[in-house]
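User: quick one, fold this
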Amino acid sequence: MRGSALSAEASRWQPSQAEVFPEIKRTAAAFLETAGNWSEGGTAVDSLVRAGASAMAASTASVLQPSTAYAGELTVVYPQYGGLAPDSAAVIALVAQNLRTASGPWIRELVVDVRLTRQPGGGWTVERLAAPTSLGPPVALTDVAAAVLAEPRIILPGPARADVETGRIDTRLLEILHALSREFTVTVQVMHTGHVQTVYPTARVSNHAVGRAVDIRAIDGQPVVARPSDDRVSRLMRRAAELGATEVGGPADLNGLRPGFFSDDVHRDHVHLGITPGDLAAHLR
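Assistant:
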């Protein structure tokens, strides 16, 4: 559907030169932009169908339209990779919405898990938006959770902030994040809400699914994808291992075949920090 409202070329979000397979991200962005911009009397689903999306794919976009909203505007903040396979992909997109409701304007952030498939001609199309998940009902906040929420050098989008506010994000992970903020300003993309729940494309449960992982898209205001060889990226990765992270993924593998550190195309655009109970911290030598 080249040139349509759902084509990669129509996306208002534009990738940097360092992005891997930018057409995948732009296709996801175009779908979200089409769904998330509707006026009074319309719906997110209708916008997609008119643009040529399948009824099945369009129906999953209802998450972008709360029942109280009669019009909306959506901007893609950043589409991060959640997984890549030869003929499928997952994009974890942080979006900002300006919604109009009967009670007044509502500004919110969402993280949306967008699933795509490769078409016979080689192009990509959105198959669906994955259903939102939850860590469960809130529990009492620990001191470190409260400290993370209050720390201005930890920039949390709305969904990640809500994850921490449940009290269900792993304390050890929050301790690492808070300690890193003494040396870096970290911009979080996603924790649990909106992340792929398995290690894509396998069925193995991700640490994100159980509140034991965080993805960082920028360090000291510099996007990881734009400056993958920046010394700040490697310093933060090494420091996270020193603080006890058992999974440290990013643009470069800092330790070859030894466990803990890793890199691939999915992690060119962010730093992943995770805690797996029973595993040793990522090897530094």
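User: anything notable?
Assistant: Residues 59 and 280 are 44 Å apart (CA to CA).
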